Amino acid sequence: MANYAIASLSYLAANYDKEGFKANSQTIATARNLSRPLVGKLMSQMSTAGLVNGTPGPGGGFFLSRPPSDITLLEIVRLFEKVEEALMCPFGPGWCGNGDPCPFHYELEDKRDEMMKWLEETNLEVFTKHPIKPEKGWCDTAAS
After folding, report:
1. What share of the chain is helix, strand, coil (3-state, %, to 5)?
2. Distances (CA, A) of 59 to 14, 22, 48, 107
3. Is the predicted pLDDT of residue 136 greater than 60, yes or no?
4. What does the pLDDT look like over 67-115, one tens digit per residue?
5. Calpha distance 5→46 (Å, rounded)
6. Residue 63: what are its φ and ψ, rounded to 5°?
7. How far is Cα of residue 3 from the mean position of the Cα atoms in its chain?
8. Contact by Cβ (8 Å): 122, 69
9. I need a surface site. Which of 66, 122, 128, 129 has the fewest CB within 10 A?
């Protein structure tokens, strides 16, 4: 679910600098090729978590509650995944932690630490610098 949440927020981040920009669940779903019910559920969870705000009714929609640079991927992923849990040993439960670790133990720990660092250091601002294809997102037709 975290990947779909990031995809949904990437659309809002990419359009963050557009004055008064809001997008409803259907618009986000279409722009990111996701189902509307899924986006609606994700946006509700992210609204409760304070990542987005929403306004109901015609002309309403969702928008980021903070600048994209203030929302890390880790903050999003934590809503949907248990990222702090220890990695599951590929040799099955009961191997690591009971005697010598498995042959992958330290390498997997290093990879998890690298991933956590990347998620913590990467924020939604990365999507503000990415070009948006008109058929997959908002397009400023006045600039064309």
Report:
1. 50, 10, 40
2. 19, 8, 21, 50
3. no
4. 999 999 999 999 998 877 666 777 877 777 777 888 888 888 898 899 9
5. 8
6. -150, 155
7. 6
8. no
9. 129
